[in-house]
Design goal:
Largest sheet: 2 strands, antiparallel
Order of helices and strands: HHHHHHHHHHEEHHHHH
Strand order of the largest sheet: 1-2
Strand content: under 5%
Radius of gyration: 24 Å
């Protein structure tokens, strides 16, 4: 699993580094990164829109088949498949965005957890040396699941600078250590007072708590718009619409409590950026032109 996450994190790390080098603000870099993913996935959104329109056009026939073959499931299956082929409809297109979103999330988590590797591109030997020295400074044996974040926080403490400079007598050269320390100290992971490297807690009502709250609010806004303009959601009953809305709010909020705030920020703006995407695909493929 670590190999897979690392493989996902490396290419996304280069994209994130490009965003950060351009903006020099960690939070804004994540927002731009989120916008970049929406632009890349826009052709998929168009494909899903076209596929959804086909489904709504076929719905009367599919409903008729259910009555016609109420006692013959095999005949119903064959009739549905024949209609799908005739209309060039693929029932699996709708899950493509989710299948792409999952690796992006895992990759972004790796990028947030490992800034020394992905943002600063330190060699692994140097990272290991800093991790070992940080553990020595903190008088612990393990730095937990995110050792690079612990190193970054320790380096931000100027009182530890001299201790880290002692690495010049070890595996690193003195000039390299000074340069690396300066580069780490230049990375500020705070965004409007929120530490994007930290994970929100259910029990602490601090600024971090806003991230899950805003994740839920952004999901609510997205779902309200989606229920009004999405071709599939419009066809759903009010009960089904609000059932999905409640699920998305609960899922978004809970998810943001499980990951670093940087990933939560990605999720918030991912929901918000989905709104203009829905309007744009509706303009390009207006359902009213294809469906009575």
């Amino acid at each position: 699993m670590d190999y897979i996450i690392n493989a996902l994190g490396v290419p996304l790390g280069y994209v994130m580094k490009l965003c950060y080098d351009w903006i020099r603000d960690y939070g804004l870099a994540i927002i731009v990164f989120t916008l970049f993913t929406k632009v890349i996935l826009f052709p998929v959104s168009l494909m899903v829109q076209k596929n959804s329109i086909k489904m709504i056009k076929m719905k009367p026939k599919l409903d008729a088949y259910k009555y016609q073959y109420v006692d013959d499931k095999d005949a119903l299956f064959d009739a549905q498949n024949a209609l799908y082929k005739k209309e060039h409809y693929n029932p699996f297109v709708g899950i493509i965005p989710l299948l792409i979103q999952i690796p992006i999330i895992f990759g972004l988590i790796d990028v947030v957890y490992r800034p020394m590797k992905h943002l600063l591109h330190f060699p692994q030997g140097a990272i290991d040396a800093f991790v070992a020295k940080t553990a020595q400074i903190l008088h612990i044996t393990q730095l937990g699941s995110s050792p690079e974040l612990v190193v970054m926080k320790s380096v931000a403490n100027l009182n530890n600078r001299q201790a880290f400079l002692s690495l010049q007598n070890g595996v690193l050269k003195g000039s390299d250590v000074s340069s690396m320390l300066a580069r780490m100290q230049s990375v500020h992971m705070n965004f409007f007072g929120v530490d994007l490297a930290a994970t929100p807690s259910f029990t602490h009502l601090d600024l971090l708590f806003l991230i899950p709250v805003l994740a839920g609010v952004s999901a609510l806004i997205m779902c309200i718009i989606q229920n009004k303009i999405n071709v599939l959601q419009i066809e759903q009953s009010a009960l089904a619409q609000w059932g999905m809305t409640i699920f998305m709010i609960a899922f978004s909020t809970y998810f943001a409590f499980l990951v670093p705030a940087g990933v939560g920020l990605y999720w918030i703006f991912g929901n918000l950026f989905s709104i203009p995407v829905m309007y744009i695909v509706n303009i390009i493929y207006d359902p009213n032109k294809y469906i009575d």
